[in-house]
Design brief:
- There is one protein chain.
- This protein is α/β, with parallel strands linked by helices.
- The protein is built from 11 helices and 14 strands.
- The chain folds into 2 domains: 219 residues, Rossmann fold (3-Layer(aba) Sandwich), CATH 3.40.50; 67 residues, Alpha-Beta Plaits, CATH 3.30.70.
- 36% of the residues lie in helices and 26% in strands.
- Helix 3 runs parallel beside helix 5.
- The protein is elongated.
């Protein structure tokens, strides 16, 4: 049984704006799910509904078999949330602020647990600092620490590394992986496509309040990520031979590279055949390489296709 079951959930706000339209999504225990979509797609609304902060109009959500509306107290205890923005008391000490989050759930003081979280997030050395003295990236990490203080089963990260430098971003990814490995289920929204590509197990794409696709990240990359064979020429040419054009090669404007897209299942022998074809055409080749679409290119393509379908 999935840990989270989102069943036909819709949300219409006062005024008629429909933020979610019949969304269904299962989230498995111990996975990292990246929820991707443009601004206004419904990502934050969906997270807030699962966390009990917003009431859905239709549908049902189960967390570990419990209805998140009917059994709010039990389900909220199992959820940790790192929102995009949360005001922090600037004069609080870091360690006191995080420990207080644990007490909000009626849990006993656990110094060892708090220390482990702060060390994992590289915050232990700052534990006695006032929050106003911390950088923006450090404050983001404090929000993660607060969300973990009560030992939730599920952690929602809404743009977790926004405003964080590259080094802190990558170390945050390491923390997320360790959480997944310890059994915590992680759902993150992000504008950094490299973030989803780096750490997600599955990807769900949402646009205009509807789920467009849910798939294992690696499967998505293989099935939707076009591969290209790139042939770099010794010297620029003006046009390709009819044989090379018939094989699908296209000459780039610079005249020094020819590119063809291909199905990964047909990769065997492709490079050798290409070299032979260029040799037969009397074109000297300097190098040959392959390239695969990034998750960002796939995402942009999916959203573009969905928008075309909606307008047709």
């Amino acid at each position: 049984m999935p840990l989270i079951e989102i069943q036909n959930v819709s949300k219409t706000y006062v005024g008629g704006h429909q933020a979610l339209d019949d969304v269904s999504l299962d989230i498995e225990k111990g996975e990292i799910l990246a929820l991707l979509g443009p601004n206004g797609a419904g990502k934050t609304t969906l997270i807030n509904i699962v966390c009990g902060l917003v009431t859905h109009t239709d549908g049902r959500i189960l967390l570990d078999g419990r209805d998140v509306t009917a059994e709010y107290r039990q389900t909220r205890r199992d959820i940790g949330l790192v929102p995009q923005e949360m005001p922090l008391d600037p004069f609080d000490k870091l360690i006191d602020n995080v420990a207080f989050s644990r007490r909000l759930f009626g849990l006993p003081h656990a110094p060892d647990r708090i220390e482990a979280i702060l060390r994992d997030l590289s915050l232990w050395d700052k534990r006695d600092n006032r929050l106003l003295t911390l950088s923006g990236g450090m404050k983001r990490r404090v929000l993660i620490a607060k969300a973990l203080a009560h030992e939730p089963k599920v952690l929602f990260l809404d743009e977790p590394t926004a405003g964080v430098d590259v080094e802190l971003r990558r170390s945050t990814w390491d923390v997320v992986r360790r959480l997944r490995d310890s059994g915590v289920t992680v759902i993150l929204t992000t504008h950094y496509l490299e973030e989803a590509e780096e750490i997600a197990d599955r990807v769900a794409v949402i646009d205009k309040g509807r789920i467009q696709l849910v798939q294992d990240k690696d499967v998505m990359m293989r099935s939707l990520g076009a591969k290209k064979l790139i042939v770099e020429l010794q010297a620029p040419i003006e046009r390709l031979s009819d044989d090379l054009a018939a094989r699908g090669f296209e000459l780039e404007p610079c005249g020094a590279r020819a590119v063809v897209s291909y199905d990964p299942s047909e990769a065997d022998g492709l490079a050798a055949a290409a070299l032979a074809a260029f040799a037969a055409a009397g074109v000297a080749v300097r190098d040959i390489s392959t390239e695969q679409s990034t998750l960002e290119e796939i995402f942009v393509g999916l959203i573009g296709d969905a928008n075309k379908g909606a307008s047709s």
